[in-house]
């Protein structure tokens, strides 16, 4: 078969993979309530007749489960993560515990996945009012603090392509580029209420020799409380990132 003849088949395969992954992501993000077929169809932007077959297949294989007409995350998702070695190493979790204890705010470990940032582990403080961000959900790289760390150390062509997608304003692009240059130099990224005016975030990249920056550690908490001790928090976050960078967080 010629390459021309195979193109439609490859396109169909890509659409199928994209559709299945979109269904999984939307359902996982909807936990614990789950979604009805119509809601899932609206979220994906595809007809129910198309979505239903994929959803039923995912139920059959255990990646989704159906309860009272609602689709929810199935047990196979957790199994897949365990098989794939996605358990957070002890060294990383211990660093989160120490950081949260030192500053009494929510400590976060985030990873870069494509053009998204995903929180894979966190430790909450003793504070009654605290940041409680959802785990295992895709977040935009901009303007979250750990996303800024990923962008600051990203290959320029990839970073610029991302920035062009989020703004077509040259002045805004220049402002973002300038901030990212500062993040790169200082190894500290800030989110000063840019996504939620009531929350602050501070993050620092974990730099492993010879590897792309795909992990960042940080703190998040109420804006008023974080702003009052931002210098101390920044120092603690940077020290935690440097420790993990130097040790590789080996168990």
TrEMBL record:
SUPFAM superfamilies registered for this protein in UniProt: GAF domain-like (SSF55781), Winged helix' DNA-binding domain (SSF46785)
InterPro entries: GAF-like_dom_sf, HTH_MetabolicPath_Reg, Tscrpt_reg_IclR_C, Tscrpt_reg_IclR_N, WH-like_DNA-bd_sf, WH_DNA-bd_sf
Any GO MF annotation of the entry: DNA binding
Annotated signal sequence range: none
Residue ranges constituting the HTH iclR-type domain according to the UniProt record: 14-75
Gene Ontology biological process: negative regulation of DNA-templated transcription
The entry's keywords: DNA-binding, Plasmid, Transcription, Transcription regulation
Pfam family, any one: IclR_C
Domain IclR-ED: 68-251
Protein name as annotated: IclR family transcriptional regulator
Native organism: Rhodococcus opacus (Nocardia opaca)
């Amino acid at each position: 078969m010629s390459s021309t003849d195979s193109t439609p088949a490859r396109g169909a395969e890509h659409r199928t993979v994209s559709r299945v992954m979109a269904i999984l992501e939307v359902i996982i993000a909807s936990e614990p309530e789950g979604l009805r077929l119509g809601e899932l169809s609206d979220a994906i932007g595809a007809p129910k007749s198309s979505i239903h077959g994929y959803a039923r297949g995912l139920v059959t294989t255990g990646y989704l489960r159906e309860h009272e007409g609602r689709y929810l995350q199935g047990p196979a998702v957790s199994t897949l993560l365990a098989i794939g070695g996605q358990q957070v190493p002890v060294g990383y979790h211990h660093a989160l515990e120490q950081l949260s204890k030192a500053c009494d705010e929510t400590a976060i470990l985030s990873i870069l996945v494509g053009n998204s940032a995903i929180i894979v582990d966190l430790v909450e403080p003793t504070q009654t009012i605290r940041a409680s961000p959802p785990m295992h959900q895709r977040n935009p790289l901009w303007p979250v603090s750990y996303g800024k760390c990923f962008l600051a150390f990203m290959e320029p062509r990839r970073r610029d392509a991302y920035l062009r997608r989020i703004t077509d304003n040259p002045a805004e692009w220049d402002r973002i580029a300038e901030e990212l240059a500062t993040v790169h130099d200082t190894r500290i990224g800030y989110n000063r209420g840019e996504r939620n005016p009531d929350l602050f975030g501070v993050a620092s990249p974990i730099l492993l020799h010879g590897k792309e920056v795909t992990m960042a550690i940080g703190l998040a908490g109420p804006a008023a409380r974080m702003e009052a001790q931002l210098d101390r928090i920044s120092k603690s976050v940077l020290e935690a990132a440097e420790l993990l960078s130097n040790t590789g967080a080996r168990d």
